[in-house]
Amino acid sequence: MSTTPDRRSQMRVITLGTTTHLRIVEPSRTDGNDQVCPTCKGAGFLVADVPYGHPRFGQLIPCACKQADQQQRRQATLEQLSNIADFRDQTFATFDPDVPGVRKAFLRAHTFAQRPQGWLLLFGPCGAGKTHLAAAAASQVLDRGEPVLFTVVPDLLDHLRATFGPTSEVGYDERFEQVRSVGLLVLDDLGTESATGWAREKLYQLLNHRYNQELPTIITSNRAPDSLDQRVLSRMYQLAFGGEILRVAAEDYRKRPMTMKGAGQ
Prior knowledge:
- The chain has eight helices and nine strands.
- By secondary structure, the chain is an alpha/beta fold.
- It has two domains: 58 residues, no CATH class; 185 residues, Rossmann fold (3-Layer(aba) Sandwich), CATH 3.40.50.
């Protein structure tokens, strides 16, 4: 960006650290807005204060305020894409690990959320807390600004089928790529989908890709593991976080008295 001497004289030079000098992209303005960033005066960008011919001459550098705004927008986008809004109240803080049969799964899910690696596999009866633990882990990862997608398996397959419709704004390839390559994928209620050949093949393709790429995945299911597609099951065992498929053996959470549940439930 070129500037006239007069215009340059209106620009304020600031020092970041000990060696980097930056100057405001636009002249300082006073518009009565007390919220204007004092560093860039609302411009959002700075340029390196270097002479013409320098490799960084004219290079735009986002101000700290701009970076913060970009991070907020990115987090909002991740939140929207995560599909986890309805489960945000299901956190580790609102889960009662003292209920018989859930402590091991609680500790394993909490550890997984700190550094997602491999596949966290939670099996057990309805209402045992599997979805709660999966959502809690997903929320913790999302809060760190990492991409997450939470989806119930039958709903996921419905969304994939919908891409073939004439009114769909998203193509199948684009939607499928978003799902199979997301940083952390949570597949809730695996095994409750319609047992069609198409559904089995799509799930196999999805999980096989994540297996080959070693992408962290959380899977919950009410079904016995041995009843699942054997091609998928073998991959589960190989990438199981902690080396095992966890069975959550608690009774239905929804049927327990409120006094037995953790704070906030």
